[in-house]
Amino acid sequence: MTRYLTQIFSALFERPFRIREFAQQLYFVGNQSLPIILFCVTFAAVVTILESSFHMKMVIQNDSLVPGFAAMLILRELGAVVTALLLTSRVGAGYASEVGTMQITEQVDALRMLGINPLQFIVVPRLLACIVAGVILIVFANLTCLFAAMLVSESYLGFPTSLFLSSMRRFVQFQDFYFAMVKGACFGAIIPMVSCYYGFKCEQGAEGVGRATTKAVVASSILIIGTDFILSYLFSFFY
Fold this sequence. Notes:
The protein is mostly helical. The protein has helices spanning 2-11, 19-31, 34-60, 66-104, 107-113, 118-155, 161-171, 175-200, 205-235. Helix 3 (34-60) packs across helix 6. It is elongated, with a radius of gyration of 20 Å.
């Protein structure tokens, strides 16, 4: 795996730069993933704020801190992690099956015979597209989550928008937005690297492609959760 990562890093600087493939992958990852991500994170934000209110009322009989607490949770964890896991299931699975099919049909070997580096040809455009799309999608996801939480707080919990925003200012710091984007870039890098790795290791047959896809999604999800823990721990030193 270390050799694989080193080769990818080296391939990043190899010419030609495949700008058109990068743009196609950015459209596939960013634009086509946006509706499902916004749909899912909206409901996740609604459930988060309703559950927070319910439990605060039950435990301390006071849910006045719910808007700020929910906004902090959305920006620091919910938006980034849910977006990354959705991207893993959609984009990561697609990459693993695509590269796996190329591997078992000997298209990867054909690239090598033509003197083309498969990592530079296949992985690099997907890696760069996922990093950029990961940052953009997490920004949209966080803004959508905050808007949904604000609507629920006003319509269901009785907190006006002004109170939501003032409570949010007490809990949320500006670097939370930066840290969320850093998480988006890191999660976006993990998905194509892990998925393509298992695609290259794919065994023959449809069963082999299925196993490679499953391993890619599981490994990516575990790495995203682990990376989230490490980044959250490191970011805690900046507050």
